[in-house]
Design brief:
- The protein has three domains: 191 residues, 3-Layer(bba) Sandwich (FAD/NAD(P)-binding domain); 134 residues, FAD/NAD(P)-binding domain, CATH 3.50.50; 87 residues.
- Helix content is 21%, strand content 33%.
- The chain is built from nine helices and 27 strands.
- Helix 1 runs parallel beside helix 2 and helix 1 runs parallel beside helix 8.
- The longest helix has 21 residues.
Length: 415
């Protein structure tokens, strides 16, 4: 089967990219989704807070996904559900398999990678102690509870203060569990401020910063207790600072990793700072005609930003198919002082304004973002506060970039 565009992933990124490509002139589009329904992670995010930017109203995750799924009606976009992509080749052949259709190969003129991200597990962070049942990633516990109706435990400790962990602290409390504490190894939270307030403070759940789990204990094959220790500036546990928690469940909210096995299989360069593909301003990877968007590029905190970024990728894929490859010379965008990464990492200066997303390395009060090229400042932006858990966005006007020939650096400094 031949398509102008194959979108891998039917979550919010894939849906937005496919619809944008259709609106920009492509007619033969396929969405390939490994789950049995479109919507991705949004289907298990039954809390509200989605859509404030995109739809100007507060929606739950399934409601937000439903808006985009409804938009598919009548668009003529083929959807392959319960279909796992095994390989994407450099000539844009998509090898996939499903229970109903078996093994098949789809040919495409362009590809959008929208596979999302996965959670870090206990093995990724090396928690010492027994290895019993009762240790879950926060997203797995969320799926069990919200989609399958299973409680993961009654007395819960949460390691990590990412947004999923914070939201599950509230969710489990509302379902009758006792959430003893949320423990974070860094001196600042990894989640949105609004989630700290609404999910921890409103329910009197303590947050221990600069603490981590140093032992997991078990009885009869189930978690029976967890030891938490304070850590120093090098994140090394401090002897004598231990606290013991009597619990039956440990939830891990210790970070997300872009799902890039297919990307690596295509030999597309990966940015070690984001663990996602290096992309241009239009979300094209360094392989012409292959685009990436959403959490597979870098982990977002708001789905509204995922949708906007993915629409840009879908429009660019349509332009690639209809008009051909963009061969303009690109300059590099790099992270400077106080910035951990930038997306995009490459920009081809033109007339259009460019959005640059990044995260800061620490909490800032009043600060200034400075954009430089060849040692000269080309733009500055002021902020009243910034935090690592909240993605930042600056917009560079097209005329600012016209004369730029060297690398662009984005830095942050205290005001």
């Amino acid at each position: 089967m031949k398509y102008q565009l194959a979108v891998i992933g039917g979550g919010p990124a894939g849906l937005a990219a496919a619809l944008s490509a259709r609106d920009n002139g492509l007619e033969r589009i396929a969405i390939i989704e490994r789950d049995n329904a479109l919507g991705g992670i949004l289907n298990q995010c039954i809390h509200n807070g989605f859509g404030l930017t995109r739809f100007k109203e507060e929606l739950t995750g399934p409601e937000y996904a439903g808006r985009f799924i409804d938009m598919l009606a009548g668009k003529g976009i083929d959807v392959f559900l319960d279909t796992m992509v095994l390989q994407v080749t450099a000539d844009k052949q998509v090898h996939c398999v499903s229970p109903n259709d078996g093994y098949r190969v789809l040919e495409a003129e362009s590809i959008v990678l929208a596979m999302g991200c996965r959670e870090r597990t206990r093995g990724a962070i090396g928690i010492p102690g027994d290895r019993p049942s009762g240790v879950f990633t926060a997203g797995t516990a969320q799926r069990y509870l919200n989609l399958e109706g299973y409680m993961c435990g009654k007395r819960v400790l949460i390691l990590g203060s990412g947004d999923i962990g914070l939201i599950m602290a509230r969710r489990l409390t509302l379902e009758g569990a006792k959430v003893l504490a949320c423990v974070e190894v860094m001196p600042y939270s990894g989640g949105l401020t609004r989630n700290i307030v609404q999910c921890l403070n409103d329910f009197d759940i303590p947050l221990y910063l600069s603490h981590t789990v140093t032992e997991v204990r078990a009885e009869h094959g189930r978690v029976s207790g967890v030891t938490v220790s304070k850590v120093d500036e090098n994140r090394v546990p401090i002897p004598g600072s231990e606290m013991d928690f009597d619990c039956d469940t440990l939830l891990l909210s210790v970070g997300l990793i872009p799902e890039n096995e297919l990307t690596r299989g295509m030999d597309i360069p990966i940015d070690p700072r984001t663990n996602g593909a290096i992309v241009y301003e239009n979300m094209e990877t360094l392989m012409p005609g292959v685009f990436a968007c959403g959490n597979v590029v870098h982990v977002h905190d708001l789905v509204d930003f995922v949708s906007a970024e993915s629409e840009r990728a879908g429009a660019a894929a349509a332009k690639y198919v209809l008009e051909g490859e963009n061969t303009a010379t690109a300059v590099e965008i790099m992270n400077g002082e106080g910035v951990s990464y930038t997306v995009p990492q490459r920009v081809r200066p033109g007339n259009d304004a460019i959005n640059v997303f990044f995260r800061v390395r620490k909490n800032y009060g009043r600060a200034q973002i400075e954009v430089c090229s060849n040692g000269e400042s080309i733009a500055t932006f002021k902020r009243e506060r910034m935090a690592p858990g909240e993605m930042e966005n600056i917009r560079l006007k097209g005329e600012l970039l016209q004369g730029v020939s060297g690398p662009i650096t984005v830095s942050v400094m205290e005001a």
